[in-house]
Amino acid sequence: MSTQTSPEGNPLRDPLDRRLPRIAGPSGLVIFGVTGDLSRKKLMPAVYDLANRGLLPPGFALVGFARRQWENEDFAQEVHDAVKEHARTPFREEVWQQLAEGCRFVQGDFDDDTAFETLKATIEELDKARGTGGNFAFYLSVPPKFFPNVVQQLKKHGLSEGTGDSWRRAVIEKPFGHDLASAQQLNQIVHEVFPPNEVFRIDHYLGKETVQNILALRFANTMYEPIWNRSYVDHVQITMAEDIGIGGRAGYYDGIGAARDVIQNHLLQLLALTAMEEPGSFHPKALTAEKLKVLSAVVLPDDLGKNTVRGQYAHAWQGGEEVLGYLEEDGIDPKSKTDTYAAVKLEINNRRWAGVPFYLRTGKRLGRRVTEIAVVFKRAPYLPFESGATEELGQNALVIRVQPDEGVTVRFGSKVPGTSTEVRDVTMDFAYGESFTESSPEAYERLILDVLLGDANLFPRHQEVEISWTILDPIEEYWDKHGKPAQYASGTWGPAEADEMLARDGRSWRRP
Amino acid sequence: MKIDLTDTTSSKINAGLIQARRAIGTPAVGMVLTLVIVTDEGSAYDSLKAATEASKEHPSRILVVVKRPGRSPRDRAMARLDAEVLVGSEAGTGETVMLRLHGELANHAESVVLPLLLPDAPVVVWWPDDAPPNAAEDPLGRLAQRRITDSSAAEDPVAALGHRAESYSPGDTDLAWTRITPWRSMLAAALDQKHSKITEAVVDGEAYNPSTELLALWLADRLGVPVERRVSDGPGITATRLSTADGDICLDRADGRLAELAMPGQPDRHVALKRRETSELIAEELRRLDPDDIYRSTVQFGVKHLISNPGGAETVKPDGTVKPADKAPATPAKKAAAAKKAANAK
C-alpha cells in the first residue's frame, strides 16, 4: 500500500501516471471581438475540441464580448454553429451541453463603461454559478489599435487583477507592433495592466505539432546533433509561402507587408528553434534564454541592397485562374510600395553557425502553400567516383515540412540500378501529416490550454518580439529609402532578383 | 488491395505484403508498431474494426490471429495456414493480415507471427476476449512489449483481475483499466483544488464490471482510506463519492454520457464523461508503450483482498481488512470461480 503524495500534494496525481492528461483548473475565457473570423473558425472550435478531449475543467465558462446585439442564447447558437462547422472532433451533444451552460455574451463597445460593468457582473455571476474561481483569460481578438482601450478598461473596472489566488491573463495576437518603437509601446501598455508573465502572445506556428517536433528532432536524437553546425551545414533556407493573395485584408496589409507580417514573428521563431543551443530544460525561462541568445547573435549583411529582396505579385494566371496583381487589388494604392514577397539573408555570429547563411523568404501568391525549413549540407569533400557518375548528385538536405503534409524529408545520393555507377538524389520520408493528422490537435487547442494552465513555453516573450524587430527594422528602413518592390508573376516562386541573390553566393532556392 | 493466400507460409505472406504495397504505389511505410490481435472468428470483425480505427493515430501492421484447431480428430491432425493480406484503403493507414491457423498449427501461432513482425518496431498483443492466464508467459505474449487483456470480457471479471495481478509483468495492461482514465482524470482534477482531508470513499457501478473494482482499488491505494464498492444498475460506473469533513466530492453519472460534479462550497456542474468505443481505448493504449506502474500498483493492491474474500472484496480498507458488503453481487457461479481460484492460489 502506498500513501505517498505527489509534489503538489494531490494524492491522485503521480508523475508515473502518464495517462492522466493535464486538465486546466477552474477558469473561463473571455473573447473580445468574438464575432470575428478567427474566433469563429479557430477559437470556438478549439474550445469545443478541448472540452471533447476532456481537457477543460468542469464549469468552464466562455464569455463573448462584441458590439452585436445578442442575447446569451444567440451567442450560444453562434458558438454551436461555429463548432459544428469547424471543430476537428465529432460533435457530441453531452459535450456541447456542458459547454453551453457556461456561454455568456456581453454586448458593448470598448469605451462603454456600462458594458465593462456588465462584464464584471457576468464574471462574478459565473464564479458563483459555475465555480470558475475568479480565474479568467482575456483573449484580445481585436485589431491592435483597440488594445490600449481594452486593457485600460479592464484595469479601470478592476478586471485585470484577480483576488486571492486567482489569476487574470491577457492573450494577444500578432501583429505585435510594426517596428521596435511601436512594439515597445504596445508592451508597455499591456504590461501596465498585466504583469509580463501573465501576457500570452499567440504565434500559432509555435502551437503546431511539427514546430514542437523540431525540438524533439534536435534534442532527443543523437544522429543530427554532430552535423548541426558550420562544419557540415552549408546553408539553411526557411520558407513560408502562401498561394492566396491579400483577399479582403487590404486595410490591414497595405503598409505592413510580408516581412513585418511573417518574417518578424514566424520565420525568426523558426530560425531560433533551428539554430538555438540545447536549453538546460524545457522550462519557459530556459527556452526563452536560448532563443534570445541566438536571436541576439543574428547579424544583417553589410550590403542590404544585394542581400535582401522584396516583391509584389503581378497580374497573371495562377494554377488555372486569372488573378489580379497586388496593385490592382481593391483598396490598394496603385503606387503602394508594400512588399508581398520578402527574402533576406541573415547570419548568426556564434561558434556553431559563423559563416552559414540563413535565407528567409515569404510571399503571397507563390507556387503553392508551404512552410518548411531546409538544412542543406556541404558536398562531400572528395568523391571517389569516375567523372560523370555524380553529376546528378545534389547537396544532402534535411527538410522539416511544417505545413502542409507535415513531416521530415532527408535527401541523399543513391546508386541508380544498372551496370554503370551513377549516383542520383533520392529522398527518405517521414510523413507526420499522412499518418497523424486525424488526431493531431490544432495549434489553437494547444495554445488555449497552455494559457489556462499558465504554461508559457510556446509563447514568444516580449524580449523576443523586441529583438526580432531590431533585426527587421534596418531592412525596412533601407527599403523605405531605396527603390521599390520587384514585380513577380503570381503563381511563380518570387522575383528573379531573389534567384540572383542566391546565385551570387553560388546557391539556389529549393523548389519546395 | 486484397490478396488471398491459401495453404501458405509466412514468407509467402511477406512477399504478398511487398507486392501489395508496390501495386498501390506506396513502397515506403511509416508504420510505428505491429499489433497482434488474438481472437476467434466471432470477434475478429469487431476487433479488427476497432484496431483499424485506432491505426489512424498509430499506423501499424495489424496481424489478426484466428485459431481454428478443428472439431474432428481428422481436422486436428492436419495443419494449414490461410491468409488474407489487406493493404491500402481497406486497411486504414497501415496493413492488415488475417491469419487463419488450422489444426495443429493453432498451437504454434508464434511461428507464424514472428517472421511477420515489423523490423525494429514495438509489438503489441491484444486478446479481445480469452486472454491466457499468464499473458507474459504466453508464446505470443513473449514477443510483445505490450500485452493488452480485457478482464471485462472474462466469464468472471473480478477473478480475472486476480489473475492479472498475480501474473503481472511489466508491459501488461487491461482495457478495464483504460476505461477508467476519464474518471481518474476528472477526480484528480477535482482534488487539484483545495479540499479538506478525505476520510472515505464509495464507488458505485454495475456488477461484473471490473473497471468499478479498479477505480475503487486505485482510490484506496492512492488515498489510503477505506473504499466501499457498491452495486448499481449501471451502465458501467455510475458514481464516485469522496467524503471530506466539509462535505462530499461527488461525481455522478447515471446515463453513461453526462456526469455531474458536486464539490463542497461550489455549484454543481456537468461534465461530459462518455463511455468510450473500443477503438478509442486501443488508441489510448498504443500511445504509451512503457510499463504502467500505476496499473501494477492498483491491480496488485487489491489482489490479496480479492483472494482472501471469495465473495468479492466489497470494502477495501487500507490496513487490509475487509468489510463484507450490504449488497454483494456474488452469484453462485462467481463465488465458485473465486473459491476455486483461491484454492488454486494456495
TrEMBL record, chain A:
Residue positions annotated to bind NADP(+) are R67, D109, F110, K174
Domain named Glucose-6-phosphate dehydrogenase NAD-binding: residues: 30-213
Q: Which GO terms describe its molecular function?
A: glucose-6-phosphate dehydrogenase activity; NADP binding
- What EC number is given for this enzyme? 1.1.1.49
Q: Which Gene3D superfamilies match?
A: Dihydrodipicolinate Reductase, domain 2 (3.30.360.10), NAD(P)-binding Rossmann-like Domain (3.40.50.720)
> Catalytic center at which residues?
H266
The biological pathway it contributes to is: Carbohydrate degradation; pentose phosphate pathway; D-ribulose 5-phosphate from D-glucose 6-phosphate (oxidative stage): step 1/3
- PROSITE patterns (alphabetical): G6P_DEHYDROGENASE (PS00069)
What does the similarity note say? Belongs to the glucose-6-phosphate dehydrogenase family.
Would you tell me the protein name for this molecule?
A: Glucose-6-phosphate 1-dehydrogenase
Q: What gene name does this entry carry?
A: zwf
Automatic annotation (TrEMBL), chain B:
Q: What is this protein called?
A: Glucose-6-phosphate dehydrogenase assembly protein OpcA
Q: Which organism is it from?
A: Actinacidiphila alni
Q: Where is this region: Disordered?
A: 309-346
One Pfam entry for this protein is OpcA_G6PD_C
Please indicate which superkingdom the organism of origin belongs to: Bacteria
Q: Which residues form the Glucose-6-phosphate dehydrogenase assembly protein OpcA N-terminal domain?
A: 51-165
Q: Which InterPro entries match?
A: G6PDH_assembly_OpcA, OpcA_G6PD_C, OpcA_G6PD_N
Task: Pinpoint the Glucose-6-phosphate dehydrogenase assembly protein OpcA C-terminal domain residues.
Answer: 170-298
Which regions are flagged for Low complexity bias? 327-346
